[in-house]
Write a structure and sequence with these properties.
The protein has 263 residues and is mainly alpha-helical. The protein contains twelve helices and no strands. The protein has one domain: ABC transporter involved in vitamin B12 uptake, BtuC (Orthogonal Bundle), CATH 1.10.3470. The longest helix has 26 residues.
């Protein structure tokens, strides 16, 4: 039963799942509290453009996908602040451009590998050492940036008051969106571009149902993200079903359970 812990590629999958569960759930609380769920979906599809460009030039997908998605996140934040357009409209514009670029570059690559499929639908069992190193590095950076948690939380609840208190809200927004973008890119190999937005939102939404403070919401969300990734991987291995979809369905079950038991 516990052979899952002795197989090397499954050990990597467990580590990657735990790290991605932590990252997605940590940043997910800000995405949920700020009502930015569509941003997660938009950046996930933007990452597809970066992955397609990487495949076209025969490069490691993360090498190009990470800076590409960061640029899209910066572009979304900049256009939203400099124009009168609604955030979802801005996201939709960059979403469409990125997907169009991705489709063009994929079509130009005659004999592309299964990388595109793996990134679209997730393949946690294909996680390699480079993925582990990058995800670990991002986790460490997120821990070092923990002092920003209070500032992000402050502006999430009262943006105008944060401006009044001379907090650099715009700089914080850029930093938060960049970290969300990187988290999405390193997470798509686990659950895929199609499902990563759910991984970013569902644990945080579940935590919001039962937590009375934002700090508790953050802790509950992280716990749910890590636990669901581990249990979902365990179930997918023994039931022989896709791991990413299993993790998301498990998170959905937890969400509806919390919704029904909440007073």
């Amino acid at each position: 039963m516990f052979e899952i812990f002795t197989i090397p590629f499954l050990q990597k999958a467990i580590i990657a799942g735990a790290l991605v569960g932590f990252l997605s759930s940590y940043y997910g609380v800000f995405v949920v509290q700020r009502g930015m769920g569509f941003l997660g979906s938009g950046l996930a599809h933007a990452a597809f453009g970066g992955v397609a460009i990487s495949i076209f030039f025969n490069q490691e997908p993360l090498i190009i996908a990470i800076p590409f998605t960061i640029l899209v996140a910066i572009g979304i934040t900049y256009v939203k602040e400099k124009s009168n357009l609604a955030e979802d409209t801005t996201i939709g514009i960059f979403f469409s451009i990125s997907m169009a670029l991705g489709i063009i570059f994929i079509s130009l690559k005659r004999n592309y590998s299964n990388d595109a499929f793996n990134y679209l639908f997730g393949s946690i069992l294909a996680v390699n050492n480079n993925d582990i190193i990058i995800t670990t590095a991002l986790s460490l950076i997120s821990i070092l940036l923990f002092p920003f948690w209070k500032r992000w939380a402050y502006s999430s609840f009262d943006r105008e008051l944060a401006y009044t208190d001379k907090i650099k809200v715009m700089i914080d927004d850029y930093l938060l969106n960049i970290m969300v973008a990187i988290t999405i890119v390193v997470s798509i190999k686990v659950v895929g571009i199609v499902l990563i937005a759910a991984f970013l939102v569902i644990p945080a939404a579940s935590a919001r149902l039962v937590a009375k403070t934002f700090s508790k919401m953050t802790l509950v969300s992280i716990s749910l993200g890590i636990t669901s990734a581990f249990v979902g991987l365990f179930l997918s291995y023994y039931l022989d079903i896709p791991s990413g979809a299993t993790i998301i369905l498990l998170q959905a079950l937890i969400f509806f359970f919390f919704m029904f038991i909440r007073k």
